[in-house]
Amino acid sequence: MPQLNPNPWFLILLMSWTIFSLIIQPKLLAFTPTNPPSTKPEMTTKTTPWAWPWT
């Protein structure tokens, strides 16, 4: 069963995680968010119940 042979796949897994950790992740973490969180308090709206015509 070739699925149980870890020889080629383990190396591919290690290489892909190395590339992700050393090259791609620092580039992604360098981005600044375009919409930073706001410090304004949330506005709560008062809702009124729906007036059903048949009740």
TrEMBL record:
Transmembrane stretches, start-end: 6-24
Positions of the UniProt region annotated as Disordered: 35-55
Cellular component terms per the entry's GO annotation: mitochondrial membrane; proton-transporting ATP synthase complex
Short name of one Pfam family: ATP-synt_8
InterPro entries recorded: ATP8_metazoa, ATPase_protein_8
UniProt topology in membrane: Single-pass membrane protein
Keyword set includes Chloroplast: no
Biased composition (Low complexity): 44-55
GO molecular function, one term: proton transmembrane transporter activity
Family: Belongs to the ATPase protein 8 family.
PANTHER family, per database record: ATP SYNTHASE PROTEIN 8
Protein name per Swiss-Prot or TrEMBL: ATP synthase complex subunit 8
Species of the source: Nycticorax nycticorax
